[in-house]
Please model this.
Amino acid sequence: MLTGALALSACGPGAKSQTVPADLPPLKTMAPFRIGTCVQALHLDDPALAGLVARQVSQLTPEWEMKMEYIVQPDGSFRFDAPDRIAAFARAHGMGLLGHTLVWYAQAPPAFQALDESRIKFVDAYRNYILAVAGRYRGQVVGWDVVNEAVAEDGNGWRDSLWSQKLGAFEHIALAYRTAREADPQAVLLLNDYNLEYNPRKRATFLKLAERLLSSGAPLTGLGTQMHVAADIEPSKIREMMRDLASLGLPIHVSELDISLSEAENKLLSRSDLQRRQAAVYGETAQAFMALPERQRFAFTLWGLRDRDSWLRKAHPTDAPAPFDDAGRPKLGAAALVEAFRG
Ligand code: 9MR
Model:
């Protein structure tokens, strides 16, 4: 008994099983809410990846092709070929589609910057964009990240952007929600941001913005927490964030989860320590989400299924932040997700 107990504690929390069961069930079959991943249209041309996506998840978020950077052309016209393909794939597989994202401080296409305001008022061009994009996918999306990353990096106030300069810091945000609702009466309209687990000040500002939108009558109906976290995050940070976000009573979307090994700050941890921590953090995040009241569990989205497709690889070529490895085989993180969703 004693040696057994010692051996277990030596493995550390969340490291109960060191191998992935060969018969691990698909993530989507275990969860009583939608499980998502981001995809790019080119991913759908890779049969191995498309197969993994179809087996594992029940919701898709376009990784970049439903953003202004793709849709808005230099002459101000719109293109929808890639997002339409992703929407069609979701439809063909009975999956939800999460619109991402209508307004983002980081994207201010040249056509908007050079707008000839003697021909069209800025506010009308802004509204036209939201009406066109949210209108096109009306009835297809389950929700929209209407405004992405509205809160300043340090949590003091809101982002400065072309949109805030032209339309007002609060006004452009409220207008985006009202216009998205005009275009799509059904979609859950989310406010989405990152570092909400690491930075309590940013979280407080995020929640204050949400409350102000609600009290102004803007149709905000969900909160997204991206969760780009590192493997050495303390689990209490995730639980505290989930508890605070839940306090408004709105549905919560874990919207972009990945768990970086390379971004861990604790340099005392070896790569295998970090891999074990990563699996534990996948499980802890799913547990914290499962602890929400059922009506507040909107969906649980991974920012990529396979390590090799992750955006983090650009900055960190050896990072392995996803729950499936380069070959699409489940890692311990996938097993931890299944175990947590099982309840
Ligand atoms: O992963 C996305 C990457 O492929 C894109 O080039 C980039 C810019 O569109 O956006 C990345 O996704 C971001 C998401 O849209 C918003 N939150 C942070 C994500 C990672 O940067």
User: Anything to note?
Assistant: The radius of gyration is 20 Å. Confidence is low (pLDDT under 50) at residues 1-15.
